[in-house]
RNA sequence: GGGGCCGUAGCCCAAUUGGCAGAGGCACUGGAUUUAGGUUCCAGCCAGUGGGGGUUCGAGUCCCCCCGGCCCCA
């Protein structure tokens, strides 16, 4: 831009350059004065007086990605900032900050490729991230920034792990308790040992095993997705439908491996039931309920040789139709019950072509281990092999064959099912393949096809036995009650609740995560390290990748990166038995660990004595009377994307509840109110060859799109480098300033709705700020142009209506309509005073109301209006009711639903007066033919005359 | 396949929750400023709410069916 053109612009116009200067100045001001420091009740962050009303606002923990931010990332951050600034201006003590969920795979993979320590990469990324968000003017308390990779942070993550490890779930009391009380309970006989022997009869090792088995954090042989080609276990999400790793496309095997587990299932009921006390979107609550998947049914024992197979079913009423049993391929009884030889009359469809049951089962199990769980559940082509063994159906004494089939999963129920083809599609498909005849136990309605199961309700049939119960004629509910009572009475089983939720696999064979504060002695027994040894810091290693194997070597064992840090792994310690050599646990915690409790650390980030001081925790997170008697407490607003609907939010709730049970925190839920923001998406364009072209260089003409003269194809979706459609907040700050960007981003639409980014629309927000600026400042002289003129009655009505509306909008996270109302008021001011100067009584509240959305320009104008202090605290205007009440009301008058005329009456007119005036109105009277059939008067709204 | 959410002007979105379809922005048109373009300012223009049926005095809003899009579960 040349000198000539800048001359044309008035010197004091609100341009991007001026905006940039203002923004930097105020960002420095806020930082230097600690404007957004939120005082704590106690500790280093305490600072004199404490407002009684607090507001704790939290964004979902960002991962500091290396590729930088695009305009979609800060949408939620700006939203929470506007909300936070509004409440701070309304007098509340507002805690809002941001830290980093900084452990994770991308930095580790980068380290594997380049040899650069993941900490270095991560810290660089965090700096970039902070620089980018700092430009946006987010009012964070920067003293409270934390990162999960800081040893002073993960020290407490490890501490919480030990708290969980050191507790058990007391079913009677329905809460977690310290492990010491379990020992007492065992000794007193309140809790029985696994084999029923008396506690005093157990050896020390046996006692330890009993206790270890009941811990909330425990080691188990759990089936996991083992990927030898990558050298690590994978989460289900990382495995493709055809049973291979998403990354690298290596085979993935279901293997039992010793892994840390968290007993989240102990909390299944509370995690479901407490959802009712949360102010969360119904959608997320539903997703959590479905994930936990509570169902009521029965556990039934089917005698089988000298053992018994336990089955869980949600339909015990269909037991008479159980024509077979199925064990999951991983079921521990499979080997024991598999027969030596096929019965002489075995059906060829049952043998898998093998000469003995053992061969058939072994081959089948091997094939099943190659399939993903998803695949096993979804596959419509059912398979299975006969074990050569029969079990006895307890309700009728019939001999039924026992199969192994992979659509039965070990992780759900007991890993064994009774096959009820008459009422279940999967079972129907299964028996069809194996040539077994289905038996219906519920009579389908007339017209139901003969070749499909009937899962609906109806009278039971074929459901009685001389020595057993009779369900015939009963509906499902009554049949379930009857059969469950019968099973319990005859000791064949009992009513049971089943959950889809499984315990949480808590170890990973990675480098870049929290080490476990656990060592193993020479017998392999785990020992917790004392609190005084925390944090257990990550050792330096030469190679950040786990050892990998032949991709098809299913029997290989994981060898995590930490296992090769020899000096670190072998450690001599005195854990009470004198100095001994121990081996450290070489796994690391999963990425979720650090984000399970960060709201607690934000509250007291510098505390070196405790993970959080109870006084600070109670003040910021404790239950509050204002929220009613059942208030769970927690963060006042938690904002983030829906992608964390289940895992993070469930894990976090679980940890919170454990800490609550142990008396470490005062609230039993971490997040009282949850809000999901939408996503900003973008158009992308491909040329004739399908390559992406730079979106910013594409122009539209008559609904078609062109780039460099050639026609291109429009796509809609994510913003990303590979799609060549990235717009960054830095670009927007450069072109328009952060305030314009903030305003536009909030004005685009409701916060919870996804929408397309449109750079060309941003200018509208910029023009608004220019007009508002001009209403306060003379563009050419820079002088204030406010006056002491008394505002008109109309002005005051417009002003107070805006105050009233904007307050409600800010509080309800409706920033788009708040912005529109401010534009409207500003347009009113421009029209009335654009030439003469704005009355101060209008200018000041307008500036204050703008501040949450556009804080820099608002501070600048506020200071130019003669105020020495920041507007950040306790300045938000309050509407005067007087100006919200109208003297007169205009009523549209409809005749048969169509507006035919209007009348203006006093606001105090009664319904009868309004009706009379309406009917007397000239045009309406002319349409009337005698008495109307009906006249509807909606007070304050309209009149409808029905002829 | 099951469940949920959403379709309002050329585009992004409002609509006091069943009461006058339009607040705000973009684009567009005209005018002012400017040597001109751009900027800026002022004024104006545009739909009857995806389609069909129902309830109601009255439906964008409630109910049913269909179409299109997104999400979750299988």
From TrEMBL:
GO MF, one annotated term: aminoacyl-tRNA deacylase activity
Keyword match DNA-binding: no
Reaction catalyzed: tRNA(Leu) + L-leucine + ATP = L-leucyl-tRNA(Leu) + AMP + diphosphate
Entry GO CC: cytosol
Motif 'KMSKS' region: positions: 718-722
Annotated localization: Cytoplasm
Residue ranges annotated for the Methionyl/Leucyl tRNA synthetase domain, each copy included: 58-166
Annotated residues for binding of ATP: 721
Region (Disordered): 441-475
CDD domains per record: Anticodon_Ia_Leu_BEm
Leading EC class: ligase
GO BP, sorted A to Z: leucyl-tRNA aminoacylation
Entry's EC annotation: 6.1.1.4
Keyword tags: Aminoacyl-tRNA synthetase, ATP-binding, Cytoplasm, Ligase, Nucleotide-binding, Protein biosynthesis
Domain Leucyl-tRNA synthetase editing as annotated: residue spans: 289-488
Residue stretches making up the Methionyl/Valyl/Leucyl/Isoleucyl-tRNA synthetase anticodon-binding domain: 796-910
Pfam family, one: tRNA-synt_1_2
InterPro entries listed in its UniProt record: Leu-tRNA-ligase (IPR002302), Leu_tRNA-synth_edit (IPR025709), M/V/L/I-tRNA-synth_anticd-bd (IPR013155), Methionyl/Leucyl_tRNA_Synth (IPR015413), Rossmann-like_a/b/a_fold (IPR014729), tRNAsynth_Ia_anticodon-bd (IPR009080), Val/Leu/Ile-tRNA-synth_edit (IPR009008)
Entry similarity comment: Belongs to the class-I aminoacyl-tRNA synthetase family.
PANTHER family found in the cross-reference section: LEUCINE--TRNA LIGASE, MITOCHONDRIAL, LEUCYL-TRNA SYNTHETASE
Protein name listed in UniProt: Leucine--tRNA ligase
Originating organism: Herbihabitans rhizosphaerae
Species classification: Bacteria, Bacillati, Actinomycetota, Actinomycetes, Pseudonocardiales
């Amino acid at each position: 831009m040349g000198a000539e053109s800048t001359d044309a612009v008035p010197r004091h116009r609100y341009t991007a350059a001026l905006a940039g200067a203002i923004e930097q100045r105020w960002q420095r001001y806020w930082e230097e004065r600690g404007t957004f420091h939120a005082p704590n009740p106690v500790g280093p962050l305490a600072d004199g007086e404490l407002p009684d009303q607090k507001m704790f606002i939290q964004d979902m923990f960002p991962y500091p990605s290396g590729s930088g931010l695009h305009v979609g990332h800060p949408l939620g951050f700006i939203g929470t900032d506007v909300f936070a600034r509004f409440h701070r201006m309304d007098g509340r003590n507002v805690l809002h900050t941001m830290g980093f969920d900084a452990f994770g795979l991308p930095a580790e993979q980068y380290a594997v490729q380049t040899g650069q320590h993941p900490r270095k990469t991560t810290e660089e990324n965090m700096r970039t991230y902070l620089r980018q968000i700092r430009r946006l003017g987010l009012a964070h308390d920067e003293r409270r920034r934390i990162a999960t990779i800081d040893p002073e942070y993960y020290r407490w993550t490890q501490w919480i792990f030990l708290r969980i490890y050191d507790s058990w779930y007391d079913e009677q009391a329905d809460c977690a308790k310290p492990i010491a009380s379990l020992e007492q309970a065992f000794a007193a006989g309140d809790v029985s040992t696994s084999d029923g022997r008396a506690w005093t009869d157990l050896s020390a090792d046996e006692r330890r095993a009993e206790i270890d088995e009941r811990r909330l954090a425990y080691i188990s042989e759990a089936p996991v997705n083992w990927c030898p080609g990558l050298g690590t276990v994978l989460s289900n999400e990382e495995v493709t439908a055809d049973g291979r790793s998403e990354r690298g496309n290596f085979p993935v095997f279901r293997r039992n491996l010793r892994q840390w587990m968290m007993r989240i299932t102990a909390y299944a009921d509370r995690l479901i039931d407490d959802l009712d006390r949360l102010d969360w979107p119904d959608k997320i609550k539903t997703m959590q309920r479905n994930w936990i998947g509570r169902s009521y049914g029965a556990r039934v024992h089917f005698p089988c040789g000298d053992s018994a197979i336990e089955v869980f079913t949600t339909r015990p009423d269909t037991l008479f139709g159980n024509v077979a049993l199925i064990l999951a391929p991983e079921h521990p009884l499979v080997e024991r019950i598999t027969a030596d030889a096929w019965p002489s009359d075995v059906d060829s469809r049952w043998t898998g072509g093998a000469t003995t049951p053992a061969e058939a089962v072994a081959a089948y199990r091997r094939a099943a281990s190659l399939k993903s769980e998803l695949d096993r559940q979804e596959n419509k082509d059912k398979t299975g092999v006969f074990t050569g063994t029969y079990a006895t159906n307890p309700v009728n004494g019939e001999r039924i064959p026992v199969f192994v089939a992979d659509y039965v999963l070990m992780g759900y129920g007991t890993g064994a099912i009774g096959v009820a083809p008459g009422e279940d599609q999967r079972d129907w498909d299964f028996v069809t393949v194996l040539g077994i005849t289905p038996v219906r136990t519920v009579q389908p309605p007339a017209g139901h096809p003969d070749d499909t199961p009937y899962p609906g309700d109806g009278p039971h049939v074929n459901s009685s036995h001389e020595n057993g119960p009779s369900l015939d004629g009963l509906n499902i509910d009554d049949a379930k009650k009857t059969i469950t009572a019968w099973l319990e009475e005859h000791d064949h089983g009992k009513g049971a609740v089943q959950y889809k939720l499984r315990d949480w696999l808590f170890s990973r064979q990675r480098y870049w995560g929290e080490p476990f504060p656990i060592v193993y002695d020479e017998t392999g027994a785990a020992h917790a390290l004392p609190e005084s040894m925390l944090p257990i810091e990550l050792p330096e290693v030469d190679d950040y990748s786990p050892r990998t194997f032949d991709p098809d070597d299913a029997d290989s064992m994981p060898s995590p990166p930490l296992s090769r840090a020899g000096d670190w792994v072998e450690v001599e310690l005195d854990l009470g038995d004198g100095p001994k050599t121990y081996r450290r646990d070489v796994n690391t915690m999963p990425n979720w660990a650090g984000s399970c409790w960060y709201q607690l650390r934000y509250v007291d980030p510098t505390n070196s004595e405790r993970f959080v001081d109870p006084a600070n925790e109670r003040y910021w997170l404790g239950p509050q009377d204002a929220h009613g008697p059942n208030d769970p407490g927690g963060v006042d607003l938690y904002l983030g994307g829906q992608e964390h609907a289940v895992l993070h939010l469930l894990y976090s709730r679980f940890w919170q509840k454990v800490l609550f049970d142990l008396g470490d925190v005062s609230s039993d839920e971490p997040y009282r109110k949850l809000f999901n923001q939408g996503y900003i998406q973008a158009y992308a364009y491909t040329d004739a060859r399908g390559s992406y072209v730079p979106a910013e260089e594409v122009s539209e003409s008559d609904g078609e799109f062109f780039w460099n003269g050639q026609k291109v194809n429009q796509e809609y979706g994510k913003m990303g480098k590979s799609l060549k459609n990235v717009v960054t907040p830095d670009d927007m700050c450069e072109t328009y300033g952060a305030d314009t960007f903030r305003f536009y981003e909030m004005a685009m639409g409701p916060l919870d709705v996804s929408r397309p980014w449109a750079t060309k629309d941003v200018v509208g927000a910029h023009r608004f700020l220019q007009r508002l600026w001009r209403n306060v400042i003379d563009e050419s002289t820079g002088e204030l142009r406010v006056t002491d003129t008394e505002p008109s009655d109309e002005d005051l009505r417009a002003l107070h209506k805006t105050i009233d509306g904007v307050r409600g909008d800010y509080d309800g996270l409706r920033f788009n309509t708040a912005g529109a109302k401010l534009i409207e008021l500003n347009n009113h001011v421009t029209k009335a005073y654009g030439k003469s100067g704005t009355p101060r009584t209008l200018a000041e509240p307008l500036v204050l109301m703008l501040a949450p959305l556009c804080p820099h320009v608002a501070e600048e104008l506020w200071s130019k209006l003669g105020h020495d202090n920041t507007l950040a605290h306790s300045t938000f205007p309050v509407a005067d009711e007087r100006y919200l009440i109208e003297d007169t009301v205009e009523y549209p008058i409809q005749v048969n639903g169509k507006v035919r005329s209007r009348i203006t009456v006093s606001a105090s007119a009664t319904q009868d007066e309004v009706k009379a005036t309406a009917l007397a109105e000239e045009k309406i009277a002319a349409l009337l033919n005698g008495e109307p059939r009906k006249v509807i008067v909606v007070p304050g709204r309209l009149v409808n005359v029905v002829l």
